Amino acid sequence: MVLGFATAASAQAPVAASPDAAAKELSVGQNAARERQKKCGAEWRALSVADKAAQGPKWPQYYSKCVKRLKAV
Question: How large is the angle between the packed helices 59-72 and 28-46, nearest 10 degrees?
Fold first, then answer.
């Protein structure tokens, strides 16, 4: 009975995140990965449609190449 499942799921109270989890600091590696993702994302958004087609049709392939390039620097 799908309706009963939806009612039971909506009756559960949301679990609040603990304040300690929100205040947890990122490691050096996590910060570096986040910065690489931001840089690659900015580069991807700056590319025109023709440039994206030349680089590769999809974000995952572009991101993989971008991360390798940034790690080599």
Answer: 120
